[in-house]
């Protein structure tokens, strides 16, 4: 038994005594098992109710509302998809289009250990985001003696066949394809021994040999000579894109090529990548070579000796130009730190050792070269991840005898504007394009004092100081 308080019972109708009175309330005793239990409806009872007209109509109404909501959401999704801007299809890219290529022409100058030394520097090249390595020449030959030319053997001065195999294996593991330079006579001005027909047959056999060894491509110099031989077509056939050869490239160069002939020679040679030097001043070649019908994936830009001829202009200026132009940037060993003619590449490795505190000149020079290398690394990383720089459209904005400005854009990706002044006087650029905003952000600059990184700059009448290069960026605005 348990006690229950009845607070709302009519007090006048209750008998009150000392045992039942509690603060004016009546206290009664009820049995514990007197609770009322609700058992709900049985299955038969529920079935009877659900089949009534009211419930049937309610279910139909709820189902109709659900279907209307579902159709509405589907229609809204379709409208959004239809009205959304289409993404442009990504153009076909090969490994030699994905970033900078690095040339090591003199293996022993690059490292005293020859091929083994190159292998030890693969981590360095990977850190610099190098996408391919052009090696050599490393074959045996004596100047002006065609009978000594052996394109399928490694000269002992740089290493052994096993050293080369180890280098190829390690480069492959690190994702750095290697291209072999097969310049026939690399120590003499007569590159083809004045007998290009005889050399062409050896070139073809050498291509077959080295591609089977695992090289990702072959480089040949001055293609105008070998293109006229009967062996050229069969040599090209070795690089026709099949499942076995789709990752190998035939590369070549032309010497003293006029700007107007670049696209023509590209079509005639049939090479995958044509390396051509950036002329001095650059604008004399840039505007003429970048035809609308020209595939930028087939053109590689090199500095050659440009940085040495124009020592008054900082090398970072030309680094920015090569990394932001359409096509593949190709650098020689030492370009990333601004080595001058006659300086040994060993200087690159000495940068890791601190300069003597007492030698202020050496310390300043070391700091400058490290800054140049960091500038190169920043541009290399940027080139690899930004679609506008990787394969975007090229739009000329300004061009003069000493300055240049152009825009790189791709679909809805961030835009990049390169402005360069290699002259000795300041220049004001009047930039005009429907895609340009009023202001753009400084992404990278050779002169952070006058144009700080991340600062917003007006693009109307843009002023550049002498020897200054700036890379601006701004988002896609629709």
Can you tag this structure with a few keywords?
TIM Barrel, 4 domains, single chain, 478 residues, GH, extended, eight-stranded parallel barrel, six-stranded antiparallel beta sheet, disordered N terminus, 16 helices, transmembrane, alpha/beta, aromatic amino acid transmembrane transporter activity, GH13_cat_dom, 21 strands
Structure annotation, total helices: 16
Q: What does the largest sheet look like?
A: 8 strands, parallel, barrel
Mean of pLDDT: 83
Q: Point out poorly predicted stretches.
A: 1-16, 18-24, 306-310
Domain count: the total is 4
Q: Tell me the strand order in the biggest sheet.
A: 4-5-8-9-10-11-12-13
Q: Beta-strand percentage?
A: 15-25%
Q: Look up the CATH topology of the largest domain.
A: TIM Barrel
Would you identify the CATH H-level superfamily of the largest domain? Glycosidases
Kindly state the percentage of residues in helix: 25-40%
Report, as a whole number of angstroms, the end-to-end distance: 80 Å
Named CATH architecture of the largest domain: Alpha-Beta Barrel
CATH top level of the largest domain is: Alpha Beta
Based on CA inertia axes, which overall geometry fits?
A: extended
Instruction: State the secondary-structure class.
Output: alpha/beta
């Amino acid at each position: 038994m348990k006690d229950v308080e009845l607070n709302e019972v009519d007090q006048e109708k209750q008998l009150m005594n000392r045992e039942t009175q509690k603060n004016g309330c009546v206290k009664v005793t009820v049995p514990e098992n007197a609770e009322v239990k609700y058992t709900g409806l049985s299955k038969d009872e529920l079935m009877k109710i659900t089949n009534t007209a009211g419930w049937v109509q309610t279910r139909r109404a709820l189902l109709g509302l659900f279907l209307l909501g579902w159709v509405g959401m589907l229609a809204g999704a379709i409208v959004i998809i239809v009205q959304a801007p289409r993404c442009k299809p990504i153009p076909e890219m090969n490994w030699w289009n994905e970033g900078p290529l690095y040339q090591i022409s003199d293996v022993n100058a690059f490292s005293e250990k020859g091929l083994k030394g190159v292998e030890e520097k693969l981590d360095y090249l990977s850190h610099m985001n190098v996408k391919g390595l052009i090696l050599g020449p490393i074959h045996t030959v004596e100047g002006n003696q065609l009978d000594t030319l052996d394109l399928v053997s490694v000269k002992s001065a740089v290493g052994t066949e096993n050293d080369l195999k180890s280098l190829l294996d390690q480069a492959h593991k690190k994702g750095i394809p290697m291209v072999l330079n097969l310049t026939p006579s690399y120590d003499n001005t007569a590159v083809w021994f004045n007998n290009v027909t005889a050399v062409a047959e050896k070139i073809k056999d050498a291509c077959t040999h080295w591609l089977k060894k695992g090289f990702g491509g072959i480089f040949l110099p001055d293609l105008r000579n070998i293109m006229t031989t009967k062996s050229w077509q069969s040599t090209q056939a070795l690089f026709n894109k099949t499942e076995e050869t789709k990752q190998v490239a035939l590369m070549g160069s032309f010497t003293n090529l006029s700007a107007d002939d670049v696209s023509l020679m590209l079509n005639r040679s049939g090479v995958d990548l044509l390396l051509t030097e950036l002329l001095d001043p650059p604008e004399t070649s840039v505007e003429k070579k970048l035809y609308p019908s020209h595939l930028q994936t087939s053109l590689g830009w090199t500095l050659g000796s440009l940085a040495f001829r124009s020592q008054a202009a900082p090398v970072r200026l030309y680094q920015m130009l090569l990394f932001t132009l359409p096509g593949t940037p190709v650098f020689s060993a030492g370009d990333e730190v601004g080595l001058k003619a006659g300086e040994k590449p060993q200087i690159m490795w000495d940068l890791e050792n601190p300069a003597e505190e007492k030698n202020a000149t050496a310390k300043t020079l070391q700091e400058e070269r490290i800054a140049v290398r960091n500038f190169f690394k920043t541009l290399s990383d940027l080139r690899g991840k930004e679609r506008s720089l990787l394969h975007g459209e090229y739009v000329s904005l300004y061009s003069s005898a000493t300055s240049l400005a152009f825009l790189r854009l791709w679909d809805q990706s961030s835009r990049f504007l390169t402005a360069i002044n290699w002259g000795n006087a300041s220049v004001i650029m009047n930039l005009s394009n429907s895609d340009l905003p009023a202001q753009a952000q400084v992404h990278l600059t050779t002169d952070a004092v006058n144009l700080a990184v991340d600062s917003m700059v007006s693009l109307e009448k843009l002023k550049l100081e002498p020897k200054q290069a700036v890379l601006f960026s701004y988002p896609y605005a629709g």
